[in-house]
Every structure is written in structure tokens, then in C-alpha cells.
Specification:
By secondary structure, this protein is mainly beta. It contains 2 helices and 7 strands.
Length: 111
Amino acid sequence: MERRRFTRFHVLLPVQYRTAPAECGESYQGQGLTRDVSLSGSYFHVSTPGPLKPGCIIFLTIAASVPPLNGPGTTQFRARGEVVRLEPPGTAGPDYGVAVNFLEGPSFSPA
């Protein structure tokens, strides 16, 4: 039985993230590719996790084409979240898998 509050959308979208130094020990910026996104969290793949670990607070920006919100073009989906799981390569595929729980509702803005 599905226990999630929000529907998960399986989409491959570019994601950029940066860490909050206080929780992760250093400031780091990286990029990856989403596997799925919902209003409560996301799972994405990265080739190098840098300082990512459970408990890290990160800021995500996902670029997506969402015409109803912005007319034609791309909208940025932004969220602040906590890394809840980091899966090594092999478990999640050839890259690391990062599971993030959003700490507040995401925001949408024009790119």
C-alpha cells in the first residue's frame, strides 16, 4: 500500500543543488538527474556525491517545462530539503542515489 502524501512523478529532469555548510561541513554545488519528484520530496542521481550524507540540508533547483504555470518555456522548481538516504552505485544504478525530503513546500518561478 502506498503511504506517500503526494503523487510521485517519474521524470528525468536536470537538478542543481548546493549544500548548507552548517549541516554538511562544507559548501558544495553539484548537479544530477531526477528519477522522481513529488511535492514532499525527490530522488535523484549524481556521479559524485561530494559531502552529501543523511542529515545534510540542500537547496534544489529543478528546471521543468510547465506551461500552465508560466506560459511557454521553462519553470524552475526550487526546494529546501534534507538528505534522508544516500545509495552507493550499484544499488541505484551506475551513479549515487540521493533521497531528499522537502522541509517546506517547493516554489515555482520563471527560469
